[in-house]
Design brief:
Elements lengths: L11 E7 L7 H14 L4 E7 L1 H4 L6 H17 L8 E4 L5 H10 L4 H5 L2 H7 L8 H15 L5 E3 L5 H18 L8 E3 L34 H10 L18 H14 L3 H8 L4 H27 L2 H30 L6
Parallel strand pairs: 1-2, 2-3, 4-5
Bound molecules: tryptophan (TRP).
The site of tryptophan has 13 residues, from strand 1 and helix 7.
């Protein structure tokens, strides 16, 4: 039996990844970056990765990919991820991801991949034309997580199936080689506004690719624009009720309450208790003020950081060194388990 004690000082290790995409939204902030900030501290060792190898499963303009990588790192640091206490790096710089990813391609079954709903959604009718990398993406994601023996993976609801696949791959590897090597990974899905919806249509996720800029808040929006977007956000004529139950069927109203809760670090219940009976003429300006107060310092700091890519690269480089130091010994053991001769 092979066991591992990579870092006994930490009992629990968090790994999560974010795709480098330009035009980060409030959804990225409340759904990923902010929960990551909150997981820092004595309970967890936190590893946060900009997954550039995942990004290229669909073609990326090289210049834009570089800029997007810098934008995401800037957003992480500006939002409070501390590169000295967390490990912050970009995936392509730590070879263990691709190396373990290949081994997992040989562990995962084609039938498993065929069940991945995200692949089906993304590939659609085009399944014959998309890249092989897009199909194998979940095996690379399993490698991201398991190269660090991570136990906790904060993700959105849409990634739960991939985390379950990670457990299946770990279990099959352990079984096939008769080892107890890879730990069980737990998805961590919590918090209000994990899923921020479109400001014009509460049934759709807020995304950077929607047709109108008015349907989303971008992390780099000015204070005026943020206020305007919330003022114009779609709602319904009714006032806010005094309990969440009564927000059923009022997707846009619920979304604004969730956003308020996410930004203020409270629960939707607390927000509804505070604003029971309030009309939109009262709630929307309060939400806009809150959003500006929270986001303006972050976007200012983002702009400062993005103006100095060399500083960002230095942060990423230090993070890659730390990530390498954790994942290299794990990968070495994987090679030994599998029977790959390590000649140097
Ligand atoms: N697939 C994730 C997404 O699209 C990003 C991701 C890649 C990730 N590797 C990961 C998330 C590992 C958590 C852990 O959002």
């Amino acid at each position: 039996m092979t066991t591992l004690d990579a870092n006994p000082a930490f009992t629990q290790r968090v790994f999560s990844g974010i795709k480098p995409s330009g035009g980060l939204t409030l959804g990225n902030y409340l759904g990923a970056i902010k929960p990551w900030v909150n997981m820092q501290g004595p309970d967890f060792e936190t590893i946060y990765c900009v997954v550039d190898l995942h990004a290229i499963t669909v073609w990326q303009d090289p210049k834009e990919l570089r800029a997007a990588t810098h934008e995401v790192v800037a957003a992480m640091i500006a939002s409070g991820i501390d590169p000295d206490s967390s490990v912050v790096f970009n995936q392509s710089q730590v070879a263990a991801h691709a190396q373990l990813g290949w081994i997992f391609n040989c562990v995962a079954r084609v039938g498993w991949m065929n069940r991945m709903t995200q692949f089906k959604d993304k590939a659609g009718k085009n399944a014959e034309q998309v890249s092989l990398g897009l199909y194998a993406y979940p095996a690379l994601m399993a490698a991201d997580i398991l190269a660090y023996h991570a136990t906790h993976v904060p993700v959105g609801e849409d990634q739960k199936q991939h985390v379950e696949l990670t457990r299946d791959i770990a279990a099959k590897f352990n079984h096939d080689f008769g080892v107890d090597f890879f730990p069980k990974t737990n998805p961590v899905i919590e918090g209000p506004a994990m899923r921020v919806m479109n400001l014009r249509d509460g049934s759709k996720k807020m995304s950077k690719s929607g047709e109108s800029d008015m349907e989303r808040i971008n992390m780099l929006d000015t204070a005026e624009l943020i206020a305007k977007k919330f003022k114009k956000a779609r709602t319904d004529p009714a006032a806010l009720p005094d309990n969440l139950e009564d927000l059923k069927g009022r997707a846009e109203a619920r979304n604004l309450v969730d956003i308020y809760a996410g930004l203020s670090g409270t629960t939707p219940e607390a927000v509804i208790a505070e604003y029971a009976g309030a009309g939109w003429g009262q709630f929307k300006p309060a939400l806009a003020d809150l959003a500006v107060a929270k986001l303006a310092p972050i976007s200012d700091e983002m702009r400062r950081l993005m103006a100095d890519p060399a500083e960002l690269d230095q942060i990423l480089g230090k993070g890659a060194d730390k990530a390498e130091a954790i994942s290299r010994p794990i990968l070495d053991q994987v090679y030994d388990i599998v029977g790959l001769v390590r000649s140097r």
